[in-house]
User: Fold these one by one.
Assistant:
Number 1:
Amino acid sequence: MLIDLHTHTYPKSDDSFVSADELVDAARLCGLDGICLTEHDDFWPPDAARELTRRHGILVLPGAEINTDAGHVLVFGLDQYKFGMHKPAFLREEANRHGAVLVAAHPYRRRFLADPGQDRAARSEMLHRALDDEMLRLFDAVETRNGRGKESENLFSEDLREGLCLPGTGGSDTHYRHQMGTAATLFERRIASLDDLVAELKAGRMRAVDRPVPAATSGRGG
């Protein structure tokens, strides 16, 4: 199954310019099998996600993108934000308590600079510094294909994933309708629920896919 694990809608994410219905419709037109709604520090109620699934005929699952001291983290298996989740150790404890999964989102941010990164020695230094970050050891997977990331940034994330010996995921990080379909995660097994998603992420039975299908081009650009 091909699922976009990283999307944002308005008004739950105030930097997004696409509604939930527009987003889900774009995902369906792109040929995706499902999407996860991962708003900034906010969770969709399961009932609302199920209603979007019923209305559009494509799997919609709730998650969140939490802003932490170690960067942004995609969370699957929790249902509400708690004060303290900005601390990675606290977020990890909450995930363990509820059987949830944590994915490092666009981990190249704050760790990789494109211009000096063109120099092999400078890039190697940035990678080793990132691998020494104990915070990254708290996560279950690494987003290696971000639809809004440059190729050099996503390649850095892939090298980081390999160094951490973690599975990789992909997501469009959609904020506009036309961004849908630029990256996703290909799962080996069928996923029909949030529990299925969490189980497959923990098992690592997936891989990141870059530009799996032509993106939906209608809607606002930017």
Number 2:
Amino acid sequence: MRTLDLSPLLRSSVGFDQLNRLFDTVNAKEEVAYPPYNIEKLSENDYRITMALAGFSTDELDISLNDGVLIIAGKAKEDNDTESHFIHRGIAKRAFERHFKLAETIRVQGANFENGLLNIELKREIPEHMKPRQIEIDTAAGPQKITDANESAA
């Protein structure tokens, strides 16, 4: 197995320690294909995760956010229908837990479940301290003020 060396990238960056850990976790885990899902970019700041959960109901699903990780779990209730005798059972209504690591700027807006599809709406919200700004260079006359990039365009 090949390992990924990020040292050339990390030489010119500060505070990206989590990026290295993210690559380590990707390499360490075997990816499970159940349940199938899509990640869509709807606009510059809007995203959607859609999971196909045929046979599940909302009371069998749990969505939580813990330390920047979105966790979607499903556990089917016991089927007490003793009269059912399946000849073929192709709908895999088995327990699952899927994790999505979210960037610091991504917020979960909400979730809905319709026609066997779970949709989770996400939005990128960039805080003021992370937005671009112009930093003036001090001169012999004294320090200059820091302005937002938006102010300098006006």
Number 3:
Amino acid sequence: MTAADGVDRSYAKALFALAQERGQGDAVAHELDRAVEVFSREPELRAFLGRPWITAAVKRDAAAEVAARLELGTLTRDFLALVAAHGRAERVPSIAAAYRGLVDDAAGRVRARVRAPLALAADERTALAGRLSGVLGGKQVVLEEAVDGALLGGFVAEIGSLLVDGSLDGQLARLRERLGRG
């Protein structure tokens, strides 16, 4: 873990403790996701908040204004203002990811990044989440899907460091390996 990862986790833990205390864990996670979306789509905002010659007070006010325009709750607004004032606005996406991990852990959820050649149908999504849940000891699995046209068929799921390769590409590679061994 890098020093920056440790800082991200520290901010996320502090926010998580306050959000849990107020019963706003999931709400703050959704609000952070909305803020990250704005930060990622507005390079001018990121550049402004990253300039060292802009005072902390101006950065704090700018972040609070963005949060107000997004109609974020007081806790999220104040948190974003604090992060911006401390010159860490560029870390908001990674802080939000660390926060999401804490919320998911507390709720007994895990996130699975799933790649498939086509979008999964609702019944396929449900079946896959159920099978992955069984592999993970009954934890609730939230699928984050991505279409990957390079795959021939099946799916590839990543859950933390666990990789579940149910793709046709993976099956062919395993078959090729077995045939090569004789």
